[in-house]
Write a structure and sequence with these properties.
By secondary structure, this protein is α/β, with parallel strands linked by helices. The chain has nine helices and six strands; from the N terminus they run βαααααβαβαβαββα.
């Protein structure tokens, strides 16, 4: 398959390939396991909330700054503080080495064997943060050559799920706004899935909680993922089957 005919599949990083909950291990060195889990959850909550608020305010700070500030918010909310600037620096550095989810490694090994898909990383993170994670993370770096490109929102100055960031992705992969349906987003974050669908992209929700799709912002099929998988390894098969279905529909017309 020629490079121009390959299927573009954009993988979200935080919460899809990398587990943001895994930072609790580093936090536990200072606060114990129970408090660390609570802080890690709050940290992620405020990290996302800050991006959405900035979108609404039409302002932008790099994701690295948001990650730093949301950590302080989470610590303050729990009446905690890190013992030193060195501890803070170590924790921020650890964010570049988050653990992958257990299904990620085998899925990327399978993806590496597919000649029909062009996989890229598409993230809210800064270019430096994402590059560090992809190329230096102990879990993810062995598979870094799978990804053909890294696309971040940094150049746009907005965050997911703003439409501009998905259009920026399309531009980076050589697609126009009228070709959004040719691009797949794979994400474990429902807000990201709904954002991608809103601009006409295909979207796969990685549902590792085994719960149902409950996001009710947009009515009907437009507000739901095109595909739901419990294991990232199912993505390749699902995307290729979708392409085959399209070909069959074309032949029938």
């Amino acid at each position: 398959m020629s490079s121009s005919a390959k299927i573009i599949v954009a993988f979200d990083l935080y919460g899809t390939l990398l587990s943001t909950e895994s930072i609790a291990k580093e936090l536990s060195k200072h606060f114990g396991e129970e408090r660390a889990a609570t802080v890690a959850a709050a940290w992620r909550k405020y990290q996302l909330e800050y991006t959405w608020r900035l979108n609404s305010m039409e302002q932008y700070f790099p994701f690295s700054i948001i990650t730093h500030r949301s950590l302080h918010h989470a610590l303050a909310e729990n009446g905690l503080a890190l013992p030193s600037e060195e501890a803070l620096a170590s924790l921020m550095s650890a964010y570049d080495s988050l653990s992958t989810f257990p299904d990620v490694g085998p899925a990327l090994e399978s993806l590496a064997k597919s000649s029909s898909i062009t996989p890229i990383v598409f993230s809210n993170g800064t270019q430096q943060m994402v590059a560090n994670s992809v190329h230096k993370s102990p879990d993810l770096s062995p598979h870094s050559n799978v990804f053909q490109d890294i696309v971040t929102v940094e150049e746009v100055g907005k965050f997911k799920p703003h439409p501009d960031v998905y259009h920026h992705l399309a531009k980076k992969v050589g697609k126009g706004k009228e070709q959004m349906n040719d691009i797949w987003l794979v994400s474990g974050n429902p807000f990201d899935v709904v954002g991608a669908k809103a601009v006409g992209m295909k979207a796969c929700w990685v549902n590792r909680t085994n719960g149902d799709w409950t996001d009710g912002l947009i009515d009907g099929e437009a507000g739901k993922p095109d595909m739901i998988v419990k294991d990232l390894g199912k993505v390749v098969k699902g995307v290729l089957e979708d392409v085959d279905d399209k070909k069959s529909m074309t032949l029938l017309r």
